[in-house]
Design a protein that fits this description.
single chain; Rossmann fold; 2 domains; two-stranded parallel ribbon; 10 helices; elongated
């Protein structure tokens, strides 16, 4: 699971990476040029970047490659000096790297590729770079969509890891007694078990993106909250909360996820100040 995104703060891909880190509550950082300026002017102070002693981005780029576990290059068929140098530095410092060309992959396929690479190579600190806005006017928005989808996929695949300190020891056969009996109780249980980063990520999802959680978080709910074995009190609470009669297991799960999302948006929704 990614714990930090780093960038030089250049326009285009690198600015998109920083904005996604802020939106999803992922730690960000990295080195930038002395003077903190890119092609659009001063780099905003909300980006937590360190200045190199030299002007230009060559030193910053190499430091970011060297201090990351891997470098992700995102482009749309354009070859530019920055990404090419990033790959050269990754080889020099023996770091993992992946180049995703959006002219070769559909957006979801590209996001899945990036997510699989980060997972398989155990990338925790990733340097994300690519063309500047002046080289590709669409690359900022395309990068945001790719990264947001990739990190949502990571969340879906990881599911929820229970807080073992909160698990009660119970006699065999009495597992049903530990199941939540209401939607509110289920939401509180999930909030306790979800890491802060994942709570922030979920809170910042759009309503139509909640279905992405079915295979990860949804499966956890069904298995650990007794929906597969007939947790009648919880099913009745879901019916009341969702205003449906006799909800199916998947419908009950969706109602709980929606209630969790609505609760988290009150306290964990991040607002980027421009």
């Amino acid at each position: 699971m990614i714990r930090k995104i780093i960038s030089c703060g250049q326009t285009g891909v690198e600015s998109a990476a920083l904005d996604i880190a802020l939106k999803l509550g992922i730690t960000h950082g990295g080195w930038t040029s002395r003077g903190r300026r890119n092609e659009e002017g001063a780099i905003p102070d909300l980006y937590d970047l360190m200045e190199t002693i030299s002007l230009g981005f060559n030193e910053a780029l190499e430091k970011n490659v060297a201090e990351s576990d891997g470098t992700l290059v995102i482009s749309r068929g354009i070859k530019s000096p920055g990404p090419t140098k990033a790959v050269q530095m990754a080889l020099k410092h023996q770091r993992q790297f992946l180049h995703v060309d959006l002219r070769q992959y559909a957006l979801f396929e590209a996001a899945s590729l990036a997510n699989s690479w980060m997972s398989q190579k155990m990338i925790q600190v990733v340097y994300i770079t690519g063309p500047m806005a002046s080289e590709d006017q669409q690359i900022y928005q395309q990068t945001r969509k790719l990264l947001e989808t990739a990190f949502y996929l990571g969340f879906v695949k990881s599911g929820v890891q229970p807080d073992l300190t909160a698990v009660r020891v119970e006699a065999p056969g009495n597992k049903r007694a530990s199941y939540p009996r209401s939607v509110d109780e289920a939401v509180q249980r999930l909030k306790t078990n979800l890491p802060l980063k994942d709570r922030s990520l979920l809170a910042n999802m759009q309503p139509d993106e909640l279905s992405h959680l079915n295979s990860g978080l949804g499966e956890y709910i069904k298995q650990n909250f007794g929906l597969y074995v007939g947790n009648e009190p919880l099913m009745e609470s879901c019916a009341l909360a969702g205003q449906v009669t006799g909800p199916l297991t998947d419908e009950a799960c969706a109602i709980i996820v929606r209630a969790l999302w609505e609760d988290l948006r009150k306290t964990h929704k991040l607002r980027v100040v421009k």
